[in-house]
Amino acid sequence: MSGGRTSAKGSAMIYLIAAIAGLAGALFGFDEGVIAGALAPLRRDLGIDPVAEGMMTAAVPFGAFIGAIVGGRLAAAAGRRKLLLWSAILFIGGALLSALAGGLITLTLARLVIGLAVGVAAMMAPLYISESAPAKERGMLVSIYQLAITLGILGAYVVGYAFDENWRWMFAMGAVPAVLLFGGIFALSDTPRWLAMRGRSAEAKAALARMRERPESDPAVAAEYEEIRAAAAADEGRKATFADLLSPRVRPALIVAMGLFLLQQLSGINAVIYYAPTVFELSGFSSTTTQILATAGIGVVNVLMTVVGMMLIDRLGRRLLLLIGFAGTAVSLGAIAIAAATGSPSLGVLALAGLVLYIASFAIAIGPLPWVMMSEVFPLDCRALGMSIASLVNWGFNFIVVFSFPVLVAEFGLAGVFGLYAVVCVAGLAFTQWLVPETNGVSLEEIERHLRSGRPLRELGRLHAA
């Protein structure tokens, strides 16, 4: 019988672990969202043009691109815990340097440091949670990372409103959750799967027992540990290479992980998050305060619908939620594009309603599921490297979207840009229908066995259900 069917229900300890690791997501969200409130005073104080604005804003995803490379190379040897500790240190340093920046170059470098931290933590936090969680609740627990992102974004909007024109204090506040992340991760051990992979069997079994809040002699703990140990033994001595990722065994997982992040980014989410006040300004909201309040309202919807998605992810499954999400985002972006193209007098209302529907559709599916599935679909020996490559796609296209948005809007207008994003969401429907498997309730070891079998990855959910 598979570990997906025998894993114990999650203990309070695993929720604590997920919450601590999720602080990395809160930092990611905060450092993305804080720029929305800071841009207006930064434009005034530093006199930045659209190209310089794009570079400074996009420094975070560019740094994250580099961080993903570093994290992928070091994850197997250094472990998940140690890399999360280093990312927390970078978050603290980047926040303080941003607050003290004397000019645009220093601020851009500070944002680059934050990006490095984001790139490492965005790999390690979902991986840490996924490798610690019981199979039946893995989707919901990994989604805590995405929930934390939305809470971080909302917190950034609140900070932007509270500190109004003081961008230095806005940036400085990012050090607070970074200190909490460092303290929380410092108190935890590494994941049972990484410890088993490194041959540290006694530590691995003890860590698993702690996470399940059961004695090591408990039959359920012993059975789960044996499955982890067997998978680690099967991968023993292997060092994943890029050629392994392109092998018939792993290539389907790579396509799914990369494809979902590509679609997530090209749906335009980070253009909306970074530039939401600008979108509302273009839609007729003239007051800066009104723009920030409307943006904060979008942040509230983002949080609430992420909670809804967490409740549904292990009930409805991954594929159905993705189909719902891509359909909702395509409709909402298309409606905004049409209203903007026709010069509708109700553009402001339609933009607000469209963005609410867009964020709601994104939050229940397109936001959390690429992170969840990235941490699930790769076999243990290729997991860190595969997640690194998927993260590169994520951060590479995040950078392109954020950097290009102000330039594209100036060239093609809001209608052209949102119309393009809508077409991407339609493509997401086809990609999900044809290629994405159902991993709901399936243990990581069972997913790995399916990959080794040579059967199409998209059949996984149907075979498991049968």
Automatic annotation (TrEMBL):
Say where the protein is mainly found: membrane
Indicate yes or no for the key word Magnesium.
no
Question: Which parts of the chain span the membrane according to its record?
Answer: 12-30, 50-71, 83-103, 109-129, 141-163, 169-188, 253-276, 292-313, 320-341, 347-372, 384-408, 414-436
Domain Major facilitator superfamily (MFS) profile, chain residue ranges per copy:
17-440
UniProt signal peptide: none
PROSITE patterns, alphabetically? MFS, SUGAR_TRANSPORT_1, SUGAR_TRANSPORT_2
Instruction: Write down the PANTHER family for this protein, in alphabetical order.
Output: PROTON MYO-INOSITOL COTRANSPORTER
What's the protein name?
A: Sugar porter family MFS transporter
Q: Tell me the organism.
A: Xanthobacter aminoxidans
Upper lineage is: Bacteria, Pseudomonadati, Pseudomonadota, Alphaproteobacteria, Hyphomicrobiales
